[in-house]
Design brief:
The protein is mainly alpha-helical and 153 residues long. The chain contains four helices and two strands; from the N terminus they run αααββα. It has one domain (1-88, 105-151).
């Protein structure tokens, strides 16, 4: 959906309808955040599968993942809309080129908080999960090598 909204964004912004542009910008923002949230959930899943391994039964795991994956971005979007729906809109970068219009976040502060900071937090969480999984794999590898040396003796 992120790709579909992104590819139709410029075309839809050419209609010069503020409501349509706000809707498209909200959808683009929502699906972008949802994609990164699902990426974060995937790293949590790898952590549970490769580090915790045993005793990791989570009741209604898929339902909880779906609520987090679709709900957390919805909360961010709702907060931005409650503060001011006019943060979303049509940002024309060039008056001479009508195809440069794009519906997106118009306020830089909102962009840095609601997109950049969000993506940065997910990047940091994914990095932490990645390092933890690598350390776990290294630990298992070193234990296996010690056992094989012991058995060879």
């Amino acid at each position: 959906m992120l790709n579909v909204v992104f590819l139709t964004n410029s075309w839809l912004s050419s209609f010069n309808q503020p409501g349509l542009c706000i809707t498209v910008a909200v959808l683009l923002h929502y699906f972008l955040l949802a994609a990164f949230t699902w990426m974060c959930l995937e790293s949590v899943h790898f952590y549970l599968a490769l580090v915790k391994v045993f005793n990791v039964y989570v009741p209604k795991y898929i339902l909880k993942c779906c609520i987090a994956g679709w709900g957390i971005p919805a909360v961010v979007i709702t907060i931005v809309l409650i503060i001011n729906k006019d943060f979303y809109g049509n940002g024309s970068h060039s008056e001479s080129n009508p195809f440069s219009n794009f519906c997106w976040i118009q306020e830089n502060t909102v962009f840095y908080i609601a997109v950049v900071a969000y993506v940065f937090l997910i990047f940091m969480m994914n990095t932490a999960m990645f390092v933890t999984v690598l350390l776990q794999i290294q630990s298992v590898k070193s234990r296996t090598q010690k056992r094989s040396r012991f058995w060879k003796r």
